[in-house]
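Hi P.,

Sorry for the delay on this. The queue was packed all week, but I finally got your sequence through. Input first:
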Amino acid sequence: MPTVKVRSLQVVFVFAVAALGCGGLFHPVTLPRPISMSPMSDATLSVELGHVFVTGDVLHSGMGEESALAVVLGITNNGREPYTVSAGSMSCWMELSPDLPGETRSFTPAGGGEGDFQDADLDDLKIGSITIPAGATRHTWVVFRGYRFAGKTYGTSQHASFEKGCVSCHMPSVAENQGVGDHSFAPKLAYCKTCHSAATSFDVVSGQTTVKAGLQRLRETLNNLSLLTRDAGPTFGPLDATALADKNFELDLARPKNPVDADTAGALYNYFVLARGSAFGVHNPVYTRQLIFDSIQKLAGDTTGISRP
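Then the structure:
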């Protein structure tokens, strides 16, 4: 259940992970439940949700390290003066299931602007703003994804160049099925072996092992800053030695602590996106390792023995 905050207005909506169309990086998804909105302290703005889009990996594998969410909002200025809203002032919290409140993830804005959303290149997004005249309504779109640190450049994977995209690995042709791919969308190691002939698992050239080691280092750094917990309260104690050693990253929760600066919040967000995914960098090992390294470095953590690709 994503929650989008636009300064003083909160928008809550639930979407079903079901594609309405094919082609492009983003796919529209359905909204099975009514949208609820609740104004906060300042009711100058009111918001109506338009379309919702997710990247293709979300439809088939759930939220992962490269996942992105795009929304189109109709924002009405109920005040008497023009009101400027920046995409950078918005944030998004997604509750993956009402039955799993611990599986809530935060997203930061990666780009946005006025008008309706068009399929976007994630590496060429810019954060824009709109000025809404008094009494008027304007449409704006926002893309939310992993937190990137200012002044850093980020790479991509050769996997992005596959002619059929996700289908190449997740739905290759099956000879015994008249050449039709497996609709389970489970990745097939056989296709990985077309490039990585010696691979015996998805831990190709120890890529997942490297990511897990980096994730553990980031975890320790965050815990040293009293930012992680598994305690339901009221003390919200940090992870103990047993928890830190169990490698069950997905069980870790954010420890209430305010305020934190943007980079600290971004590093925490990056941890949760990677910790609660299951790919551990398979989709984009370069980008994943860069996010981990930058997050540790920004928090002044120990980068001994690890490097930024």
